[in-house]
Design a protein that fits this description.
Length: 187
C-alpha cells in the first residue's frame, strides 16, 4: 500500500486540530464531555408547545443569571428521556408538562412556572405545595363518636414482626438487644 506524503500531512494536521480542540475548549459538539448537573428539563421540540417555549426562556435566563447548567431532555426525540419522564410522572394527576426535575432534592416543577419558583428549584430549596386550595385535615383517634382503638401491646407487635424475620436477622436482633442491655448496665 502506497501512501502519498500529501495525505499523510493532511491526516496529521486533522488529528492535531481535533486533539487541540478536544483538549482546549471542546468546540466540536460531539467531542464535548458531559458534566453532571442535577437539573433536568423535560421538553418537546421548539414550536410544538407554547408552555415549553416559555419555560425554555425562563430556564435560559436563569442559566445566564446564576451561571448554572440545566440538562434538556427532548422526550419526542430521545426514547431514553421519554422512559425516564414516564417513570417520574407515573401516578401523577397534575398536568405534567413541561417538567423540571432536580435529581438531588427530588423537587419537581410542573407546567409553566414563575421565574422565582424556578430559581428556588434550581437551588434545591423546598418548593411550596401547588395545591394551596386544598386544606390538609388531620384526624386523631378516628372519627367522632367512635371509641378509640385499643393500643397494641408492644410485645405482641414485636412477636408479629419477628415472624417475618429470617433466622440470621433474628440472631442479629438478639445480639443488638444484648448490647443495648449491656450498655444500660454500664451506666
Amino acid at each position: 500500500m502506497v501512501r502519498s506524503p500529501f495525505l499523510h500531512v493532511v491526516l496529521t494536521a486533522l488529528m492535531a486540530a481535533l486533539f487541540r480542540a478536544s483538549s482546549a475548549d471542546a468546540s466540536i459538539p460531539f467531542l464535548k464531555k458531559k458534566t453532571y448537573t442535577p437539573l433536568l428539563f423535560f421538553k418537546v421540540p421548539k414550536g410544538t408547545m407554547d408552555e415549553c417555549d416559555s419555560m425554555e426562556k425562563v430556564v435560559k435566563s436563569l442559566e445566564k443569571e446564576q451561571g448554572i447548567h440545566v440538562e434538556r431532555l427532548d422526550i419526542m426525540r430521545d426514547r431514553h428521556a421519554r422512559k425516564l419522564y414516564e417513570k417520574l410522572v407515573e401516578g401523577n394527576l397534575r398536568s405534567p408538562f413541561p417538567l423540571l426535575y432536580h435529581r438531588e432534592s427530588l423537587q419537581r416543577v410542573y407546567g409553566l412556572a414563575e421565574k422565582d419558583l424556578v430559581r428556588s428549584w434550581s437551588k434545591g430549596r423546598l418548593l411550596p405545595d401547588t395545591n394551596e386550595d386544598e386544606k390538609e385535615v388531620t384526624v386523631f383517634g378516628g372519627q367522632e363518636g367512635e371509641p378509640p382503638e385499643e393500643e397494641m401491646d408492644m410485645e405482641e407487635l414485636e412477636l408479629e414482626m419477628d415472624q417475618e424475620l429470617t433466622p440470621m436477622q433474628r440472631r442479629g436482633k438478639e445480639a443488638m438487644k444484648r448490647r443495648m442491655e449491656e450498655g444500660r448496665k454500664k451506666k
